[in-house]
Amino acid sequence: MTIGEAEPDADLGGGRPLEAGLHFIATPIGAARDITLRALDILRTADVLAAEDTRTLRHLMEIHGIPLGSRPLVAYHDHNGGVARPRLLRALAEGRSVAYASEAGTPLVADPGFQLARAAIAEGHRVLAAPGPSAVLAALTVSGLPTDRFLFAGFPPATASARRKFLAELAAVPATLVFYESPRRVSRTLEDMALELGNREAAVCRELTKRFEEVSRGPVPDLAEAFRDRSVKGEIVIVVDRAPPVKAGAEELEVALSEALETMSVKEAAAAVAGRLGLARRDVYQAALRLTEER
């Protein structure tokens, strides 16, 4: 097989049975036609089907004309893993093929499946992935921000203090940052991002691949202002550019640390200021210690 040539897929054509093991399937994040042909083949031929939301998977299969037949369809999510996981592991131990789909997107990426994958691996079963839709990658693609290095940070904490600490710890990461957020908190999160991450370029991606898809781009403070009094619905992904390579002088550093130390510990203030000013966290931490000793 030459480079760039696709490897023949054992699941396509010929009526071959699906390989025994745990198959994680990426499902559409909006448009039902985004599912891959391989994922459809797995759904059609797996011995056992499992899903975060069985109603969503049933509907997807109906759209694509895939009958469930007499096959079991097992609900598996964060709240019933202790009960459902042994059942799926027994099926694997019997040499059966098990297909698992999250409600939308790629399993394990802010979706259930991690403990199931670990347990299957620990018992020596094959774990395979049918790649496909991912809100993280879709948002990166349309954001217009650097994609050579990125960090998926998941959902920021719900409380303001925890969220600001969380963002401060990410401020100095030399990579584009990707977050999921609830539409109810997107305004407050953008305001905290403006405080902790500064005047960086960002994109707020809403309802990706769906009818009302919207991408708002601009500096974080401008986006915070734009969403301040706005009621939004749907799935939200926020993409923020990496820390700018800006070096601050001693006077600017002292002012920034003094302000940060009014509400943060030395460690938290050093992390926040280092990220905001583009300085090494160790140097800023030492400066913060000196400043507190002088007070």
Automatic annotation (TrEMBL):
Keyword terms of this UniProt record: Cytoplasm, Methyltransferase, rRNA processing, S-adenosyl-L-methionine, Transferase
Reaction catalysed by this enzyme: cytidine(1402) in 16S rRNA + S-adenosyl-L-methionine = 2'-O-methylcytidine(1402) in 16S rRNA + S-adenosyl-L-homocysteine + H(+)
Family matches, as InterPro entries: 4pyrrol_Mease (IPR000878), 4pyrrol_Methylase_sf (IPR035996), 4pyrrole_Mease_sub1 (IPR014777), 4pyrrole_Mease_sub2 (IPR014776), rRNA_ssu_MeTfrase_I (IPR008189), RsmI_HTH (IPR053910)
All copies of domain Tetrapyrrole methylase, residue ranges: 22-223
Annotated RsmI HTH domain residues: 248-291
Record keyword Methyltransferase present: yes
CC annotations in GO: cytoplasm
Pfam families per UniProt: RsmI_C, TP_methylase
Gene3D superfamilies the record matches: Cobalt-precorrin-4 Transmethylase, Domain 1, Methyltransferase, Cobalt-precorrin-4 Transmethylase, Domain 2
Known role: Catalyzes the 2'-O-methylation of the ribose of cytidine 1402 (C1402) in 16S rRNA.
Family label: Belongs to the methyltransferase superfamily. RsmI family.
Designated name of the protein: Ribosomal RNA small subunit methyltransferase I
GN (gene name): rsmI
